[in-house]
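thought: user wants a sequence for this fold. calling inverse folding tool.
action: design(structure=
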């Protein structure tokens, strides 16, 4: 398989991305692209790769689910004891990447993350399936555990502890990523991709659009 990797390539022909086609606001453009991803039937269209940096300068990334686009921020939820949350606490600078390969598109967000309000976190928590709520209580996310049986036993114990309503854990929160830049990437023939980046103006009042070399 390794010998075939250099020959693996796809010719991008889905379309072009021109400045005149963009919405004035990156969030409106993102909503349009997300609509396209959902309409096309992409698996987990709201999945995004969250990049953080640890205190030692080591970057890390993982896939999380986007659960809201509101108030000028991209929103996700997680355990506050997880690696991503502890790294955000030390360094709020993060990136988000939506790899919509089937559409020959990608969206890259760079900005800062901060905790959402408890009210917003609770509102989302109440929409989660019971099994997901139990899983949040059972998992000490990112901690080393013995084996799968330990995790399943913890989940069973929590299900017994909370037979009815499952309360919102103190160690679980939403996070809001406020972007400084939002880049929209459209694959192009001959690797002449279109990369258009919204950059927030210094005063925070509006955006400038810049074309980047592929």
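)
observation: tool returned 214 residues.
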């Amino acid at each position: 398989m390794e010998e075939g990797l250099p020959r693996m390539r796809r010719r991008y022909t889905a379309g072009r991305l021109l400045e005149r086609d963009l919405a004035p606001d990156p969030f409106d453009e993102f909503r349009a692209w997300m609509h396209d991803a959902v309409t096309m039937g992409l698996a987990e269209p709201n999945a995004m790769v969250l990049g953080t940096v640890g205190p030692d300068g080591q970057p890390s990334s993982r896939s999380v689910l986007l659960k809201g686009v509101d108030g000028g921020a991209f929103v996700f939820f997680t355990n506050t004891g997880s690696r991503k949350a502890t790294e955000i606490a030390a360094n709020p600078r993060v990136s988000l990447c939506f790899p919509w390969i089937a559409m020959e598109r990608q969206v890259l967000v760079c900005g800062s993350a901060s905790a959402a309000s408890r009210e917003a976190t609770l509102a989302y928590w109440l929409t989660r399936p019971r099994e997901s709520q139990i899983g949040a209580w059972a998992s000490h996310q990112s901690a080393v555990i013995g084996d799968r049986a330990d995790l399943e036993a913890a989940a069973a114990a929590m299900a017994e502890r909370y037979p009815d309503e499952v309360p919102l854990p103190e160690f679980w929160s939403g996070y809001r990523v406020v972007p400084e830049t939002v880049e929209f990437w459209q694959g192009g023939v001959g690797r002449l991709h279109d990369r258009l980046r919204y950059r927030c103006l210094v005063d925070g009042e509006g955006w400038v659009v810049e074309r980047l070399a592929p």
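thought: summarizing for user.
answer: Here is the designed sequence. The helical segments are 26-40, 83-90, 118-125, 130-138, 148-161.
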